[in-house]
Amino acid sequence: MTGDQMTSLPPGQRARSDFPRFGLTPYAFRFPKILDALELTVSGDAVDEAIITEPLVGLSRMSQVCDFHCVTTWSHQNVHWEGVRFAEFYERRIAPKLKVGLSVQTVVLRGQDGYRTSLPLADLLANDVLIVERLDGVPLSIEHGAPLRIVAPAHYGYKSVKHLSRIEFWQKTPPLKPAAFAFMDHPRARVAREERGRWLPGWLLRLAYRPLIRRTAELFQKAMDQRDNSSK
Ligand SMILES: Nc1nc2c(c(=O)[nH]1)N[C@H]1C(S)=C(S)[C@@H](COP(=O)(O)O)O[C@H]1N2
Ligand SMILES: [Mo]
Fold this sequence. Notes:
Elements: H1 3-6, E1 14-15, E2 39-43, E3 50-53, E4 62-69, E5 74-85, H2 86-94, E6 106-111, E7 116-120, H3 121-124, E8 130-135, E9 138-139, E10 149-151, E11 164-170, H4 202-209, H5 213-230
Parallel strand pairs: 1-5, 2-11
Antiparallel strand pairs: 2-3, 4-5, 5-8, 6-7, 6-11, 8-9, 8-10
Residues 22, 70-72, 157-158 line the site of molybdenum atom.
């Protein structure tokens, strides 16, 4: 067995050697507008709305190598990310702002492209969840989420929001219109439990999603090429 084959993948996943720009097809042609300024807006019922400029400054830089698992069944192994732990960002930048007596249950993550999803706060506080600004030793490219993205390796890729612009902290159930059909956005989407979507079993979604990979990756590449050409 080669080293690659020995690295086992979670149920239903297959290794892919390249790391494609990927997502829900409506987002292929949407790009972040702000690439230079690092800032995040925070809101939700548990904090007053505020803009945090330079949100990672003063926090401990982490370097992490982990596998990236897309719900459509491709996995790209050994991705090298650099950023700060979401947990430290929360403790240092958010906890002091929390409204007295409120406990955050759910966090909504939004990207500059309009993409959004949510995770329980408890999942985001795991040690391996980062707010990332560098990939493979260089600043994030547009393909992979510039200028800031979430990386939550234990969850399917659709929880790792790119072009992160707003984080909402909610005590009550957040008003959130899913970016895709509701069945596609599992509230936790843990890879190890194959929580690919709500209601439908993981094995069924594997079969439904797998045939879409090639065309989706091509569409995301084509959109990126068009953007590059039009900005020349
Ligand atoms: N802002 C934003 N974040 C997103 C998406 C998106 O379309 N827009 N797609 C998600 C999905 S389904 C996947 S698999 C990963 C893909 O990340 P990559 O393009 O760096 O491979 O981003 C996730 N985060
Ligand atoms: Mo995905």
